[in-house]
Amino acid sequence: MGKTYSQDLRDRVQAHVAAGCSRRDAARRFGVSASFAVRLAAHVLLTGTTAPVAQGRPAGGGKRALVMGCLIARVEAQPDISMPELAAALEEVQGVTAHAASLSRALCAAGFSYKKIADGRGVRTRRRQAGAARMDEPAPAADAPKAS
Question: What is the model's pLDDT at position 27?
Answer without folding.
Answer: 96
